[in-house]
Amino acid sequence: MARRTTITDELILKTAREVFLEEGIQAQTSKIAQRAGISEGTIFKRFATKDELFFAALSVPYPPPWYETLDRLVGVGDIKENLITLGVELLTYFQQVMPNLIASSGVKMMPRPMPGDEPDFENSPLAHDLKTIHLYLTRESDLGRIRRADVEILTTLFFGAFSSPILQAVFSRVFDKDTLTPEGLREIAEKTIDIIWQGVDPHST
Q: What is the pLDDT along the chain (205 residues), one digit of tens a residue?
């Protein structure tokens, strides 16, 4: 296979973007390498995992900006308002990245893994998202700012509220080539947190 004398990240990302948009996230890195005229090993010298390559190629910022927001909010200000702020940032992030993820995945969004190609969930972006939220809620619980509860369940409930049923509002607008306004995103976040808050209010009985 002919080798290019200069291999840039831009070349790899451009080629990866083309292949992912054609085949979805299950596209093989070997195909990306072949089309770019490089070895598969070269890809993994620049990008540690296929997930990292996928998110970089589709211009999905990772880690997402709300990670820094969580660090900044621990123990500061009104906890309920902070949860609403986090909810708005999650929805805003999903709304920004969803068109690219949908375009790349389409009906293949949840492919059945081939033998030997099972997804590494423990090191996936989703796992890191959940761990980050879990750590934030644990720290707030330790400070007595939210009611002590099963933080693992609370994490799943919180993340799911914004990434699944609530996100359907974002999905519908993506498919209709429309977007939710900042006011609309905040309204969704406020209503969601109002429901969750009844279970985590440290002053509730």
A: 445 446 777 888 888 888 877 777 778 888 888 888 888 888 888 888 887 887 777 766 667 888 888 889 999 999 999 999 998 888 888 777 665 665 555 434 434 343 444 455 566 667 888 899 999 999 999 999 988 878 888 888 888 877 664 456 555 555 555 667 788 888 888 888 888 888 777 877 6
Close Cβ partners of 46 (under 8 Å, ≥ 6 residues apart): 9, 12
What is the distance, to the nearest Å, from the Cα of residue 60 to the centroid of all Cα atoms in its chain? 9
Question: Do 128 and 172 share a domain, yes or no?
Answer: yes
Angle at 114 between CA 108 and CA 117, to 5 degrees: 100
For residues 16 and 27, give the distance between their C-alpha atoms in angstroms, rounded to a whole number. 9
Q: How far apart are CA 65 and CA 46, in angstroms?
A: 22
Kindly report the CATH number assigned to the domain that includes residue 72.
1.10.357
